[in-house]
Amino acid sequence: MSVIASTMAPAEARPAMAGQPFLAVRDARKHYGAVKALNGVDFAIRPGEVVGLVGHNGAGKSTLMNVLAGTVQRSSGTFRIGDTEVDSWSPHRAQAHGLRCVFQELSLCANLTLAENTRVMHRALKGFGWRRRAAAAIGRTLDAIFPGHGIAPGARVSDLPIGARQMAEIARAFSETDVPVRCVILDEPTSALGHEAANQLLAYVRAAAVRGISAILITHRLDEIMAVCDRAVVMVDGAVVAERPIAGLSRAELVGLMGTVEAPRERERKARPAPTAEAALVVDHPGRVAGDLPIRAAAGDIIGFAGLDGHGQRERLRALYAAGRRGAHPVAYVAGDRGTEGVFALWSIADNLTIRSLDALRRRGLISVAAERALARSWAERLKVKAPSVDAPILSLSGGNQQKVLFARALASDAEVIFLDDPMRGVDVNTKQDVYRLIRSEADRGRCFVWYTTELEELTNCERLYVFREGRAATMLSGAAIEPARVLEASFGGGHD
Amino acid sequence: MTDATLPARPRAGRPAWLRDAVAVGLPTLALAAMLAVILHIRPSAMSYFGFTLLFKLATPLVFAALSQMLVVMLGDIDLSNGSFVGLVTCVTALFLQPSPVVAMVIFALMIAAYAGFGLLIYLRQLPSIIVTLGMSFIWLGTAVILLPAPGGTAPAWLSGFMGWRPPILPLPIWIAIAAAVLGHMAITRSSFGAVLRGAGANPRAIERAGWSLVGIRAAVYAAAGVLALLSGLTLTGLTTSGDANVAPAYTLLGVGAVILGGGAFTGGVVSPVGTVVGALTLSLAGSLLSFLQVPPTWQIGAQGVILFGVLAGRILVTEKS
Amino acid sequence: MRSLRLLPAPWTYGFIVALVMWITTTLYGGLGSAGATAGAALAFGAFSVVVGTGQMLVIASGPGNIDLSVPAVLTLAAYASMATMHGQASMILPGLGIALAIGALAGALNYAAILALRLPPIIATLAWSFVFQSVAFTYGGDATLKPPAALSAFASLRLGGLPVMPVVVMALTVLAAIMLRRTLFGRRLLATGQSERAADLAGVPVRRVRLGAYMACGTAAGLTGFLLSGFSGGAALNMGDAYLMESIAVVVLGGTSVAGGQANALGIWGAALFFNLMATMLNTFHFQAGVRFLLTGTLIILIVAVVPRPRTA
Fold this sequence. Notes:
Chain A is of the alpha/beta class. Chain A has helices at 61-69, 91-96, 114-121, 130-145, 162-174, 195-210, 222-228, 251-257, 313-326, 338-342, 349-354, 369-382, 399-411, 429-444, 484-491; strands at 23-32, 35-45, 50-54, 76-81, 84-85, 99-102, 183-187, 214-218, 231-236, 239-245, 281-285, 295-298, 302-307, 331-334, 362-363, 366-367, 417-421, 448-452, 464-469, 472-478. Helices cover 72% and strands 0% of the residues of chain B.
């Protein structure tokens, strides 16, 4: 590969610049209509520095990242790169300055090979032999970050498992052709990575920092921040509320800075024994491969699915749902991915809420509008959906309220078994508590819940827990054994600290 | 299943290279089978002259299908392709001989309009199927205004070129090979082709990588216009006159050829070689049946059966039973 | 759905433009021509409306869903019903039954190909349309059968100056509108059209719903073939051709979104009247056919480019 000295990148040597920020924004603001996503943020990063950016969902981390990457234009505020004031910033200019991003949702083109995806990012990869050079560039970086990765640069992205895709995207961000990499922004980079790959990445970020490459790490896994960052920046409601060096900062302090009150972990429900085959089961699903536990549940049970994201929980939940639709006990499903799997975007709250119950709302063959609205009103009220009326468009609601409508859709139906697909992502604490209470009271009235969640504290609502690993329900925990440490241990297959 | 620390294993299904080979291989197989049947029935067709006749009408369809392929590559569909070709034949037959400059200016305007409509679809986020439906009426209307009844004459050099007998292989075969090779180099092999295919599959990723989608889409639509122009020119060379209604079938046959050749409407998945083979296959289907002495009324149906056959074959071969 | 009614409704544009054209034509042709112009537009518009209503159900069932086999099914059903009736009034009902059955079967075959071969609808319906066309050519090619006199009489029957068939079709439109809003099938269709995955997870039997949409579309095409052959004195090989693009155009101009999940049965009338009145108006002004195409295309593009679109996620 030929490394051509870029004319666009600032020519200064890194060590000499150590004191001056590579990139700095002052009083950055971003409005979407009346919504203030960024409300006057000051942020700077020096060469070779690793900054952890933490905060709850909706705190503005992703918006800040997009502003830095040039994919979103700031509404106001100053932007400096090196000692140059930058007015209009774009992804192209950001790349020319060696600033790279790994976005939360993958930004690879699934129809292209890894080498082709590398070419998409590097303008220098053209002309004769570009394919070979691209493969070399991505292969080298993959080897450096994830030794033993086993990913071929000629592989098509759609053929790679999700973890390998994430590794590929990270490697692409660190790959170099003509422009040296100076700063990489990583948004939840380890969400689909296994334990070992995540550690490899964190080690690489540290090693790169020594070479003067700075990094911004956005993650919910605070342990990763503690392990790898020099400094933590805490955001709440579109503003930076704290900036601390990691040295001397404890995890609990960091959590405190985020304004979280860690809920006392109390067991709200008694452990119930796993139902035997003879009992009245409403869910009875044999394991699909060797080592995959059968899943059984009786009326009134709350069953949890846990494990690292993307280890087969959702697939099993879908399989249970599909089997349940053919079975004797009516089922309902509460989707977590509201946008694509949950709401009907063109419809009102009432239409969205009643779609699962229309059968019962028919009078002489036609759907009774009066009965429909009555049902929608009563459930919107029970779940405290904040809306002027049930006729308001579903998209006029906040995410949390949309989620409540999806819950109401399932609860208002005749379903005896309700599947929850990580539905509380990005929902505020109060809503969560409301919903937890409702789930427990509905379970007491004989409904069965099968609940996949990525939030460990939610698991304490369950009586029985299946921890998934590599596509299988690998471990069952019940009662007092449901504890974050035990769950993590089972997720990683034992060897975790 | 998704543990990223393990070496990547191929997912259920066959490997990528096999799928690519099948994409192009199946229509090629269908083409070869049809040729075999024809040559079996009429061995005399196995000649320079016989092939010239068999593939005579394939050339315009090859270009029209490649034009459609570019639009499908962006994740759109072009319902105006056939009537655009019709308009080109009218302009060619009316102006190219007496006033080449006028013809060139009109052609340039038409291609600019194509690019403009491509941009309109992107900038206003409109459904391409409706905008191109509207475009098809515009091309047709313009053509009918220019040339209310079929007529005009093709320039002598154009009909001369289409009647040219190059060495070794007949002209339509040479053109098909050249189109397939050039298309393969430009779309499948070149570094910009990778960006273009990426823009069809995941435009956001391409934008995030610093490319201008506006530029990409305008350029691809303009290129589609150029290919449709070539289709119209070669068609005029063959028919020697202009006709607004000469080629409405090209729109959907072109779509069929793209899909036969392994393309998908999801965007970014197209094969120029496959498309060319698909176009040859569909244009040969008609000749095959007349050789088989099947009544001409079944010839259209045969195209449908071939579409089903090849696409069903692809499902059988590429998916694990 | 209810909330959309508060927006300035794009589907009314067709009616407005149609009205303007009618008035223009009448001003030019004199008041005496007003009734005839409107009557002709209603009669021809009715056929577009029946085909369009079927196409609307398919288009509303989700992005990418479209039925290109409409013209072929229409022609095939027309021939089959002509052959069944053989000019006898007593066979009108069996003829109608055959036409509807062929349409429904064609729709089922379309969806079977979509499902079994995982084909994009545009390709599956295109391939079937080739096959249907061949069947019609082969078995109907030289049929010069006349429709039963009773059917022809019904197709152009007028009661008190009011053509009956358009009124019947209007009743069908009203039924379709009620079906979309008030029946399980209608709601489930619109849910499926907005998001097939969300509909599946909300308990909608999406396959059955999509099958229903395609069968309804085929049936509508069959019915049109039956009525049209009665109206125009027999079946003809190219009788369906005009309905390929027109069925899509009236649906979209009528306010149905090609993104799926939203349908407007009433709006199809506006678009159909607009198409037919424009033809009449341009004829009245002695414009040639090319101008009509040009105007049609420009208006289609203008209307989709200008109308406010419903928000999606």
